[in-house]
Predict the 3D structure of the following.
Amino acid sequence: MSSGTRAFRVAATGARVITGVAVIAACVVGVATAVHAPWPVVEHDPAQVEVTPVPGDSTLVCNGDLRALGRDSSAPLDMLSAASPALTTGGTGGDPAAEGLAMTDLPDAGGPQVLTGAVDGRSVPLIAGAESVTIAADDLAGYAALPCGVPRLESWLVGGSIDTGTEDIVTLTNAADVPSTVTLSVYGPARSTRTVIVPARSQEALPLTSFATGNDVPVVKVSAVGAPVRAALQSSLVRVLDPVGIDLQDSVAGPQQKLVFTGVQAFAASGDDAEMAVLRVLSPGLAARVQVTVRAEGATGAADEFTVPVEADLPSQVSLSGLEPGQYTVEVEADVPLVATIRQQDGFGLDSDFAWVMPSPELDVDVAFAVPAGPDARLQLANTSDRDATVTLEALDGGQPQEIVIPAGRTGGLEVTGRTAYRMQTTAPVHAAVTLTGPGALAVLPVQASGAGEKPITVYP
């Protein structure tokens, strides 16, 4: 074999080796790249469609007659009707329809009212109602007001007392066509529960002392099965045989991490003012450190600021003392959900009154609210957001709209008229409450969000 042929074979063999090495290297690089690259997958997006449910009628439940407890010394837990409230209603589609419910234990009394705003096509009217009562009797005296509200499967009553001289009553109203089984769970040093059946379209009432004994500052969780109920608390106080106030307190839907109380008032007191304004707070399930900030109307800084440690499941009270007379907003915040309320009073003796102030929810859409009959009324507004809010107020029965600008982080207010329903619009989130204040008359009604309209939901067939 010639040397030229051998050289050709060596060259050919070398070329094949080099080509093979290159192919192997390319395969290695390809495999390595494929490992890190996304692999093709077969996927199918589920069919979905956005649907806006057909809205239902707007419904609110009003509480009915004020009750008197213990007027018969032979039956101290029996109740009688003490007074019928004046009811103020209104709506964007006209006055809502009103229908009475039964009071099974007070057959001759004026029962609760159910207000209904009927849907017009897909348009749901904004409706509002509020009731108020003034009484001057040997065992009950003062002024009380309560907005008509929405029944719930779960709600909380944060105020109330079982101290000597108090006669507090829990009312449970069932506006549905089926009975409701309601469990009342009391938080405090002596935990207890009570179960009651509320028949369809009726109201039941229980003295607070009948199931909250041993709890000086009770908080009651109301759980309903079968149908939602409207829970409320009627409170009254007698000192040294003198009646010194009544109140009607609404329930709250559940614990929240931040609560805003607007419409809090501080009154002048001779001597110790530790009981003039008191904060009650409960942290269900977990201990908490609660930050409390008190701001005067129109002020930029805090009038008072402090931290309160709260044990799990044990209600606590702290005094909001040392405040100059005036209007305030109180912010209560923690890293766990809380329920809370503020009790305020304008004096200690005859011709004085008190009121439980409930948290005011954040409002960023149109709402309707009613101002009941009573003393001078004012709409208190708190803007806890970072932008200015322009609030427009218009009476539903006509009249010139009012407008006010609430700067970011500030509070303000507008005078409003009793026996009038209003529509409120805002350009930024605000908290609002109606305060009614006069000699021996005190009430605070937070403005609640109106449940008009239904939000779209996504349906997966």
In short: Confidence is low (pLDDT under 50) at residues 1-37, 453-458. The chain has one domain: 58-454. Residues 58-454 form one domain. Helices lie at 3-36.
